[in-house]
């Protein structure tokens, strides 16, 4: 299968995400046959006390990036469901856009497994969090 295009990935975001996730203004930067890179722009509304980007926003970014990576690996949209997601936060993110680099580690018939690295969108590309997850893939209808 071939990867979905950036335009197809953007359509998947617009057509299938909950309205509150759309308010994160996520942008697809890259798609390959086994990965997707998304960016969450800087937005003070996502900060918690101390000017730190909230963990909830970071986890939503990671989960969404993994869904797009899985769709890209499959070659089309499939309504995958998160089964498990473990996030290890490494450092706080402040005053920066966040890059999510999602990689499919294994794609089976009914399950997919992946990893997402959340990085600052700066020249230093500091690691903010590492996320691993498993996803249920329902049969194509």
Structure description:
The structure is a single chain. This protein has helices at about 5-15, 20, 55-75; strands at about 25-30, 35-40, 45-50, 50-55, 80-90, 100-105, 110-120, 125-135. With about 140 residues, it is an alpha+beta fold. The strands form two sheets. It has a six-stranded antiparallel beta sheet. Strands 3-4 form a two-stranded antiparallel ribbon. The longest helix is centred in the middle third of the chain and has 20 residues, at about 55-75. The radius of gyration is 14 Å and the shape is globular. The mean pLDDT is about 95.
Topology as a string of helices (H) and strands (E): HHEEEEHEEEE
**Sheet of most strands:** 6 strands, antiparallel
> How many separate domains?
1
The CATH topology annotation reads as Thiol Ester Dehydrase, Chain A
Distance between the amino and carboxyl termini: 18 Å
What's the SSE blueprint?
Layout: H1 6-16, H2 19-22, E1 27-31, E2 35-40, E3 47-48, E4 52-53, H3 55-74, E5 81-89, E6 98-107, E7 111-120, E8 127-136
Antiparallel strand pairs: 1-2, 2-6, 3-4, 5-8, 6-7, 7-8
Notable characteristics:
141 residues, alpha+beta, Thiol Ester Dehydrase, Chain A, two-stranded antiparallel ribbon, 3 helices, 38% strand
Brief sketch in words of this structure:
The chain has about 140 residues and is α+β, with helices and mostly antiparallel strands. The chain has helices at about 5-15, 20, 55-75, and strands spanning about 25-30, 35-40, 45-50, 50-55, 80-90, 100-105, 110-120, 125-135.
């Amino acid at each position: 299968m071939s990867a979905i295009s950036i335009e197809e990935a953007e359509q998947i975001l617009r057509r299938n995400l909950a309205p509150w996730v759309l308010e994160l203004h996520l942008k697809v930067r890259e798609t390959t046959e086994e990965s997707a890179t998304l960016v969450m722009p800087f937005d003070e509304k996502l900060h918690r006390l101390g000017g730190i980007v909230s963990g909830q926003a970071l986890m939503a970014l990671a989960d969404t990036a993994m869904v797009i990576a899985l769709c890209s690996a499959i070659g089309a949209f499939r309504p995958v469901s998160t089964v498990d997601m473990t996030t290890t936060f490494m450092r706080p993110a402040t005053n920066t856009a966040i890059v999510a680099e999602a990689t499919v580690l294994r794609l089976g018939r009914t399950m997919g497994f992946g990893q997402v690295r959340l990085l600052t969108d700066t020249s230093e590309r500091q690691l903010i969090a590492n996320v691993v997850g498993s996803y249920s893939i329902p049969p194509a209808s």
